[in-house]
Write a structure and sequence with these properties.
The protein is an alpha/beta fold. It contains 27 helices and 39 strands. Helix 20 runs antiparallel to helix 21 and helix 25 packs across helix 27. Bound molecules: adenosine-5'-diphosphate and magnesium ion (MG). Adenosine-5'-diphosphate (ADP) binds next to strand 31, strand 32 and strand 37. The site of magnesium ion has 3 residues, from strand 37.
Length: about 900
């Protein structure tokens, strides 16, 4: 098999201790380095383990072998700065087939830092892409280190023992990929945390570019760090000033008395690369770059310095960061006041939003664990922060404002995990443009109006809000109150009937329900009160009565949440008659969450301290309170969903599909729509049921094809579809003729096409007519935020008019397959509730599962539009499919690597 070519890409990734290394294929230029690794970097014992003997020539032979690129060999090196610290290679064997012999070396001084595992992961990735299915390796029985690496990898390992040696065999196309993915995830998480420590909990900080000028960014941040009471050392660096604020300043990072963990850069854009390089060379571990307006070269220079010297980076164009942990107390930002210590993690892309958010949290009285202004996000992203908060032991609420996502699929995956333990809330910024890119097909256009990003966020378990106010209002409830039961049945209680009705409307509009309450509860209230939900206590209710009533209400099984709306009436002014007192003197924490609406409150939301020491969130208006409750209910629902395994799509031929995709993109590097034949090949490889389609270049071939179809047993009529490259909707252009009976009809239809389309016409597709059924649309679109979405809707010519669609993040779970169908408005049509026989549910599920697998396996698939898929009681058949491909950097969301920001792409 000569299809194995070395990967051409260079990537950077983190070792277990947070060190950045570069991974790239070895080539002739690396000969010296590889020789050095084996001859000097490894002890005699290590060499014995690696080469099974102590031949003096072994290192030279290894270098010759590894540095001569040839088909069948994959050899990857890991570099820390200029030093080669390890290599992993595999070479195809003649026998057994699809098997490669694996070998690994890591320099002695880098042992125990996860280099071997990282190299192996990347080799697994490259080998899978090259269709290698097994690794085999001979290891010495006593080579514990290597055995541990294999045991922990997450892939199944088979071992055979013979004469002091162990032959290891690792199948790469592991059916239960989830175990490997989780193992990789877990290693990624640990490495990420290790690398972020210097950034988020530094022991010492330098502010580079702290000027003497009052009001300058550097000086402001320096002042804030000092006033904030940072626990470690702080130094100012400025080549033009010997002292700032009466304290010594140093001319350069090198001149500092010790190496700072973190450097905050507030230097002009042009100076950023050189200062970053200087920091890295001095041993600084992390950078926060406040400077904005970096040009492409400056961006690249900054990134190069960070990667080469293993520094994590916040910014550029960042407002800075704040760490409130009392053992750190670092206020390195120029946004506003140093936040009060607390348990909310806050990360924002826009500094302005950050300032607003921190201010509102401060008004509310919610403290912050750490705050990061991500700025242009060259490196550290919302994803990193989610992992940090998940593990920092201080954060129980994550608040994010993100405009774009570096690696959407990785984000969705992390978010799904993190929100299991802490609520993750986000302001959904830029929602108006979501899913609208390249909307040239039904599916893409379909995704826009009906598939809000809110629903997608919800699928990842994230609470998505539409404004900063809504975010804070939801956070206020989630932070201080228990979650309601997933059902979300709310009892609305008010002392003024009209307000109760408004609150009830708001609840219903937010998707909550109002259960009927038992009439006996009325006995606790004054005469004239009504216990129909909403409950009207009347203005005459006494605080003791209200307190008793609330106590009884929280015991009710049908009630999952309580919303109390109080209007100050003249009666309240009589001492002992203020119903608000009843609320505040009772417990804040009950069996079910409680929110208050106090109509005389001036701020949108605030906490009231209650007798039990808990906090009761009170809102100034009913809509906000209802919305907050609905968010809490959504979170409860999400948490209650049982785990559903990934949708099963057996017998997908990845290799065949790969060859279609690569073939097309080699011929069309700019990407585009596949022609009908390649479309059919691609779909067939993944078992998608496209109807028989025969390609005909001219009238004669069309006639022959139709006759051929009849000979194959198709008795009935045929469809004829004109094709030319770049065509969009065929019917609208008059390019589809269906139900053609005999040869004369077919030929006349073809001639019509020739007349109508002239030179444009490239040929036509002949298909048997499919039996009628329910016409569905199934497809794939790429969402800017979340990556591939799978869309299902009512299709055919009614597709646009009825706009009945659902979408889900890929990869789909088994449950997604069912809920997608049942969530359609036209579900009765499919399920047979409307009188017609039900369609075959397994056939529809299979189409969705296979599309999901295709989208997951091929990031190049930017759009797929199967419309219609004709669903019937005996199966489903697609009669029209369009697929658009684009070259994408090979992207495996499960491969550990540092992101390449768009600003420095194309290096
Ligand atoms: P387009 O979507 O580009 O307009 P289609 O190939 O989807 O073109 O054809 C339009 C409509 O014609 C379909 O929605 C379907 O109702 C009908 N149709 C097309 N091909 C067939 C076929 N082979 N069997 C039955 N109906 C077909
Ligand atoms: Mg169509």
């Amino acid at each position: 098999m000569s299809t194995v070519h070395p990967p051409h890409t260079t990537t950077e990734a983190l070792l277990a201790d947070g060190t950045t290394v570069e991974l790239r294929p070895l080539g002739p230029d690396d000969h010296q380095a590889v020789l050095g690794l084996h001859a000097e970097g490894m002890s005699e014992e290590s060499r014995r383990m690696r080469f099974f003997g102590v031949s003096r020539n072994a290192p030279a032979q290894a270098a010759d072998r590894l540095c001569t690129p040839r088909p069948g060999l994959l050899a990857l090196g890991a570099w820390a700065g200029e030093a080669l610290i390890g290599e992993a290679d595999c070479e195809l064997l003649d026998e057994p087939p699809e098997t490669a012999e694996l070998a690994l070396s890591v320099a002695d001084c880098w042992h125990g830092r996860g280099a071997a595992t990282l190299l192996l992961e990347h080799l697994v990735h490259a080998a899978r892409a090259a269709d290698i299915r097994f690794f085999e390796a001979d290891t010495l029985f006593g080579n514990r280190a290597v055995h541990r690496v294999f045991a922990d990898l997450g892939l199944p390992v088979e071992r055979r023992y013979a004469q002091g040696e162990v032959r290891i065999r690792v199948p790469l196309d592991d059916e239960d990929g989830e175990r490997y993915r989780s193992a990789v995830d877990e290693r990624g998480r640990r490495a990420d945390l290790a690398s972020l420590t210097a950034l988020l909990r530094p022991a010492s900080v330098a502010v580079v570019g702290a000027s003497r000028r009052a009001g300058s960014v550097g000086r402001t941040v320096l002042g804030k760090i000092r006033r904030g009471g940072f626990v470690g050392e702080v130094w100012a660096v400025n080549p033009y000033a010997a002292e700032i604020d009466g304290r010594l300043a140093y001319p350069s990072v090198r001149a500092l008395p010790a190496v700072p963990d973190l450097a905050v850069l507030a230097v002009p854009a042009g100076a950023v690369p050189a200062v970053a390089e200087e920091c890295g060379a001095a041993g600084v571990r992390a950078l926060v770059v406040l400077t904005s307006g970096l040009g492409a070269d400056e961006a690249r220079g900054l990134m190069r310095a960070c990667r080469r010297h293993s520094m994590r980076l916040i910014g550029p164009n960042s407002l800075g960061m704040a760490q409130t942990d009392p053992v750190v107390r670092l206020d390195a930002e120029f946004g506003g006041a140093f936040p009060r210590p607390g348990s909310a993690g806050v990360a924002v892309q826009s500094g302005g939003v950050g300032i607003a958010l921190l201010q509102r949290l401060a008004w509310l009285g919610v403290g912050v664990s750490s705050f990061v202004s991500l700025g242009d996000k060259y490196d550290v992203s919302g994803n990193d922060l989610l992992q940090w908060w998940e593990a920092d032991g201080r954060t129980d609420l994550a608040l994010l404002h993100l405009e774009s996502f570096g690696s959407p699929r990785a984000f969705a995956r992390t978010a799904r995990r993190v929100t299991r333990t802490i609520p993750v809330l986000t302001v959904d910024a830029g929602r108006s443009t979501a899913g609208r890119r390249g909307a040239a097909s039904h599916t893409a256009a379909a995704a826009t109006p009906t598939v809000t990003r809110e629903t997608l966020f919800r699928q990842a378990g994230i609470t998505a809000t539409r404004s900063i106010e809504e975010l804070v209002e939801a956070a206020a409830l989630l932070h201080a109150q228990p979650l309601p039961a997933p059902r979300g049945a709310v009892a609305v209680v008010s002392n003024a009937g009209g307000i109760g009705i408004l609150a009830a409307d708001a609840c219903v509009e937010a998707g909550l329900t109002l259960p009927e309450l038992p009439a006996e509860l009325g006995e606790l209230l004054p005469p004239g009160a009504s216990v129909r939900n909403p409950v009207d206590t009347t203005a005459a209710v006494r605080p003791t009565e209200l307190a008793l009533f609330l106590h009884a209400l929280e015991q009710e099984e049908g009630v999952d949440a309580i919303l109390v709306c109080l209007v100050p009436t003249a009666l309240c002014e009589t001492p002992g008659h203020d119903p608000v007192r009843a609320l505040l003197e009772g417990p804040a924490l009950r069996r079910v969450p409680v929110a208050a609406v106090l109509l005389d409150q001036q701020v949108p939301v605030r906490y009231h301290g209650c007798a039990d020491g808990g906090s009761l969130p009170a809102y100034s208006d009913t809509l906000s309170a209802a919305r907050a409750l609905a968010h809490a209910r959504d979170r409860a629902r999400w948490l209650a969903e049982p785990f559903s395994p990934p949708a099963d799509a057996p017998d997908c031929d990845r290799r065949a599909a790969r060859s279609v995709v690569d073939g097309y993109l080699t011929a069309h590097p700019e990407g585009g729509w596949l022609d009908p034949l390649s479309t059919a090949d691609l779909l067939e490889a993944y078992g998608l049921p496209l109807t028989t389609s025969v390609w005909a270049r001219d009238e004669h071939m069309a006639s022959v094809s139709a006759a051929g179809l009849r000979r194959l047993g198709y008795e009935g009529r045929v469809a004829l579809k004109a094709y030319w490259p770049g065509q969009v909707h065929k019917s609208a252009a008059g390019a589809v003729r269906t139900g053609l009976g005999d040869d004369a009809e077919l030929r006349s239809a073809y001639r019509e096409f020739t007349q109508r389309f002239g030179d444009r016409l490239a040929g036509a597709v002949v298909q048997p007519m499919a039996a009628p059924g329910v016409e569905l649309l199934a497809g794939v679109v790429q969402d800017q935020v979340f990556g591939p979405l799978i869309v299902l809707g009512l299709g055919g010519t009614a597709a646009d008019v009825l706009a009945d669609r659902v979408a889900r993040l890929a990869p789909l779970s088994e449950r997604d397959l069912s809920t997608m169908v049942t969530e359609l408005r036209s579900a009765p049509l499919l399920l047979g509730d409307g009188g017609a026989p039900p369609v075959d549910p397994a056939a529809v599920r299979s189409v969705l599962a296979r599309l999901s697998r295709l989208a997951d396996d091929f990031p190049e698939l930017v759009e797929a539009d199967l419309n219609p898929v004709i669903a019937r009681p005996d199966g489903a058949l697609c009669v029209d499919a369009r697929v658009r491909l684009e070259r994408r950097p090979s992207f495996d969301p499960y491969l550990r690597r540092l992101r390449r920001p768009a600003a420095v792409e194309g290096e």
